[in-house]
Amino acid sequence: MKKIIVFTIFFLSSVGFVFSQSNYNGKLGYGFSPKGHPVDYSQMGNFLQEVANTCNGEIVFANAVWRDSLASSGTIPNLQKTISLLQPSPYSYVDMIDFGWGSPTTPYTLYLDVPGNAINNWTNSNTKNLFLQMLIHAADSLQPAYMFLGNEISFYWAQDSVDYMNYVSFYEQAYDSIKIHSPSTKVGVIFNYEHLSGNGPLVGFNTAYWNALNVFDTSRVDIFGFTVYPFFKYTTANAVPLNYLDPVFNKIGNKAVAITETGWPADSILATWYCSPQQQVDYVNRIFSIINGHNVEVVNWLFLYYLMDQSTQENQLACSIALYDSLANPQPALPVWLSYCNTTGMSKPYEENNYEVNTFPNPSNGEFTVHCSKFPVKNAEIKIYDLLGKEVFSTPFTNTEMRINPPLQSGIYFLQIRNGNYNLTKKLIEQ
Questions:
Q1: Residue 430's closest CA among 381, 384, 382?
Q2: pLDDT digits over 74-128, tens only?
Q3: By C-alpha distance, which of 357, 240, 355, 219 is closest to 289?
Q4: Which residues, 6+ apart, have CB-to-CB distance to 204 below 8 Å?
């Protein structure tokens, strides 16, 4: 997100929500945001487990600079390496990593100087060699599901379109190398949609920079990433039109899209848009209506847990774009967000085996039947998790149909059947 200066007081609206569903079949996820971040990372394991326990393993997005320090240029940064190495064991989430080389400040801040060569742009041959060396090592050793090379890059096009083309040439070379070393990794670039399209008048984004996207050879982009913050233009979530993202969908056709960051603030003393828990609820339903019918395979909320560092205006504006409040209580938007989970998948492709899990009645009033056709029940078990990822019930699964009566309070849960090799999840509503 770009650093911005705005001065207005917001008004909270009443809180309430309904559950809505779309035909969304992709993954949900979050930027790396354990409880207490970035002041305290002691809850990192709990965060990763929470993400892994919902929606058959959600996305963890590790977005950081391509090096930890000037001296470490060419070495895989610790955050991206850690997030990729911790899955699928012991945490079965999906890893999405980005190697940023600039920050969307004014001017755009570059991190392209290296030891022995202080040139801070894409003409630096030493930088390109070290960056490429690091990417190849990451592809070989991490085999990430998603790898992006740059974040919100249209800001640099606006600043220096000539040197931007040097970056595009580097990207194409890097893409070919990454695909040789990790063919299954989806490689792409990330734009801020409001800046790219000129749809951010509340923060000064009034000029479109579509050529920043047009210059890419789309055969070398597996997936286009976008950060999406409609409150840069609209003061309420329900004011965002359903065709809001159509300009980019029209440009890239049916190319896969990842919304790498999105969300709506729950509170702020600076924003010119309305901020409240209800606005978050409205936005969750709005964004899935906007992408309905398009090839969007990932939607990441900016933070799962509240950003505890408010030392900058940018952080003050973004800190509450989280699905937990500052006291780590779930926001009303969290269960609405999770109602869009695609929970029909398995850790191994279930389509080949025709496995299907059903619970009835669902919603239930206590006792219900679990039926799973053709599932290999040897050594299988049923586990039920609440919305926070906490296991609340477990029992052996000894037949393809079982009647169980778990001690559940009213709410939404995730029922999971496991046998070591397979992992099948069903959303469960207890009345």
A1: 384
A2: 999 999 999 999 998 899 999 999 999 999 888 899 999 999 999 999 999 999 9
A3: 240
A4: 4
The structure tokens 């055969």 sit at: 219
DSSP string for 287-356:
HHHHHTTS-EEEEEEEESS-----SSHHHHHHTT-BSB-TTSPBPTHHHHHHTT------SS-GGGTT-E
Tokens 């937990």 correspond to: 324
**CB-count exposure of residue 82 (10 Å: 0-12, 13-18, 19+):** middle
DSSP H helices in 246-366: 246-252, 277-291, 313-318, 333-338
3-class SS at 262? strand
End-to-end, the C-alpha distance of the chain in Å comes to 40
Model's pTM, two decimal places?
A: 0.77
- Of the options 3.40.50.1980, 3.90.79.10, 2.40.50.100, 3.20.20.80, the CATH number for the domain spanning 27-338: 3.20.20.80
Q: What is the DSSP letter of 121?
A: S
Cα separations (Å) of 314 from 6, 194, 229, 274, 291? 10, 16, 13, 17, 27
Amino acid (one-letter) located at 210? W
Per CATH, domain 350-430 is 3.20.20.70: no
The residues spanned by each domain of the chain are: 27-338, 350-430
Joined tokens for residue 233? 């233009």
Maximal C-alpha separation, the chain: 69
pLDDT in tens, 195-239: 999 999 999 999 999 999 999 999 999 999 999 999 999 999 999
Among 103, 198, 118, which residue's Cα sits nearest to residue 151? Answer: 103
